[in-house]
Design brief:
Distance between the termini: 37 Å
Order of helices and strands: HHEEEEEEEEE
Bound molecules: zinc ion
Radius of gyration: 14 Å
Shape: globular
Helix content: 10-25%
Length: about 130
């Protein structure tokens, strides 16, 4: 694991996050599709990391992918990092917060134009901050 600017101990993460958030964000889990209210969030605003508050996506880049997970075509610049994930017999690009390293989801090359990318993100890993 590389070092991230925002660091908490495992015990601190367990206190800060709900059990479901901890399982997704710190143990690379996946929420049940369609289970998160953020999937239906249509207001203008920012989606920030639920672990550290770093802005990761904006409402204008969210689209309905039909997968049951919040999906975006463009991340906030510098907000996330990706790494190669070969778990479950697949080669995928894992997405995590660039500030605290928490797991967010995966990015797939089948998104809409102009980026052609689909950031498939666990809603529990995000907090929504509506524009004032
Ligand atoms: Zn974070």
């Amino acid at each position: 694991m590389s070092e991230f600017p925002f660091q908490l101990s495992d015990g601190e993460w367990r206190q800060k996050l709900t059990p479901e958030q901890y399982q997704v964000m710190r143990q690379h889990g996946t929420e049940r599709p369609g289970s998160c209210d953020l999937l239906r969030e249509k207001r203008a605003g920012q989606f920030v990391c639920a672990g550290c508050g770093q802005p990761l996506f904006t409402s204008g880049t969210k689209f309905e992918s039909g997968t049951g997970w919040p999906s975006f075509d463009t991340p906030v610049e510098g907000g996330i990092e990706t790494s190669r994930d070969t778990s479950h017999g697949m080669v995928r690009m894992e997405v995590h917060c660039a500030n605290c390293g928490s797991h967010m989801g995966h990015v797939f090359p089948d998104g809409p134009p102009p980026t052609g990318l689909r950031y498939c993100i666990n809603g529990v890993a995000l907090d929504f901050v509506p524009d004032a």
